Amino acid sequence: MRVRFAPSPTGALHIGGARTALYNWLLAHSRARSDGGERGTFVLRIEDTDRERSTAENVEQILDALRWLGLDWDEGPIFQSAAAERHREVLEQLLASGHAYHSNAAKADVDAYKLSHGAERGFRGVAEACGAVRLRVPDDGETAFDDVIRGEIRHPHASMDDPVIARADGSVLYNFAVAIDDLDAGITHVVRGEDHISNTPKQLLVFEALGVSPPRYAHLPLLHGLDGKKLSKRHGAASVQELRDAGYLPEAVVNYVALLGAGFAADEEFFTLGELAERFRLERVSKNPAIFDERKLRHLNGQHLRALGLEELTARLEAYTGHSGLEGAVAISSEKIQTLADFWPLAGFVFDGPAEDSAAFAKVIDRDGGRDRLRAARGALAAVDPFTAGEVEAALRGLVERLGCKPGAIYQPIRVAVAGTTVSPGIFETVALLGRDRTLALIDRALARE
RNA sequence: GCCCCCAUGGUCUAGCGGUUAGGACGCCUGCCUUUCACGCAGGAGAUCGCCGGUUCGAACCCGGCUGGGGGUACCA
């Protein structure tokens, strides 16, 4: 089995593209494949024939995104542009055999043709001495293929236009180049987005004209945004790069994106790349387009974050924030964050000092005896020894008991005093991490505040 | 317009002729340190897009319709 991922480097790697890459990777690494053979080969091909829009930066960005996701390829990257000569050769071959012909017909000619022959009739041109090259589509019959995911898909020839496969300058177009490249790379399974369904018969016709047998095809449903429209920039983080910047883990992105349409049983959903590959079955992939829901990604990200372990999570957070010495704060925060980006807003006060949140101060300390309770808490904390989370907890619980107030009436003022905000890691752990001197100083500072 | 694909709670899905239509995210309630999150225990939320047909029986099979999506480039 040989599969491929063939992005065109006209922009960053989008989530939809990432999923296509992932499914190809999973298929190549799947153990439950129908052919029962050893691991498949994952080929990476860069479709850079659109010279205007393809850039080296985009290529690098795509490779970088794939590496970040852990989707390593076995062959490539192969650049489609490097095969220009071979493309031209095959084109000549088709021209010579009569499977293709030169034509100068333009959009207006195609429209006129449909006006006189019927809107559902595919355009048929007349061979000319020069011009673009069109592939001859038979008038009768149909081109059908058995899509691994969707079953039989048929396109009647009568409604297919003779597709243009090369420009007048001889450079070949997508549907032709793809067929030749897949053929030359020995691709056995083409797994790509649903937007390519109607391209498939054109490519199939190229194979047929060449007298070779085509690969199998599987068309993945597309990914949509929360509004049901095709996923794009306006849906927030739409590229892998943006997801990384937003604090998501590659493990979680891979896990979530795989789940969208993989057709797994719903009893379990936390998976590593390897586990995904073990479970993956191409035939099981869903036919419905899925909506990318960042909330579920967040949830899954939290799961993966916690599964990392303190040491690894600390390393990731240090890399993400650019700070070091984070371990203590990470230890008390890991249960409370869902993305790497959540960490600093939650625990940054440990390093930067309390945030200036006057609303929190007014609401929690500067009213209803908040100061008095904070003063009492200070007294209780001053006597704690050793200054551990356990001892801090015992002291504060004792205070709550003595004062007969609700726990929060004591804890929230302390929280606001040391963190500056009403949200922080657990209060006992936080206070213990800060240490007695710092804690008391911060409380004094809050008590002195007007 | 024409061609093609799709259709289970807000979202992702399980289901494969007989189920109180299951799970997860999200939402709500309770408990857990009146935060946030994790965890646990509950809860609300689906005439399985609509109409016909096949069948003793349909979310599951067939047809039509509607809705959504994709394609319709000398882009990829």
Q: Secondary-structure blueprint of this entry?
A:
Layout: E1 2-5, H1 15-29, E2 41-46, H2 56-69, E3 75-79, H3 84-97, E4 100-103, H4 107-117, E5 132-135, E6 142-147, E7 151-156, E8 164-166, H5 174-184, E9 189-193, H6 200-210, E10 216-220, E11 223-224, H7 240-245, H8 250-259, H9 273-279, E12 290-291, H10 294-307, H11 310-321, H12 327-333, H13 343-347, H14 349-352, H15 358-365, H16 370-382, H17 389-403, H18 407-419, H19 427-434, H20 436-448
Parallel strand pairs: 1-2, 2-3, 9-10, 11-12
Antiparallel strand pairs: 4-5, 5-8, 6-7
The protein binds one RNA strand of 76 nucleotides through strand 5, strand 7, strand 8, helix 5 and strand 12.
What does this entry look like structurally?
- Helix 17 crosses helix 19 (427-434).
- This protein has a 3-stranded parallel sheet. The chain has a 3-stranded antiparallel sheet with strand order 4-5-8.
- The protein has 20 helices and 12 strands.
- It folds into 2 domains: 2-223, Rossmann fold (3-Layer(aba) Sandwich); 348-448, Orthogonal Bundle (Arc Repressor Mutant, subunit A), CATH 1.10.10.350.
- Strand 2, helix 2 and strand 3 (75-79) form a beta-alpha-beta unit.
- The chain is mainly α.
- The longest helix is centred in the first third of the chain and has 15 residues, at 15-29.
- The structure holds one RNA strand of 76 nucleotides.
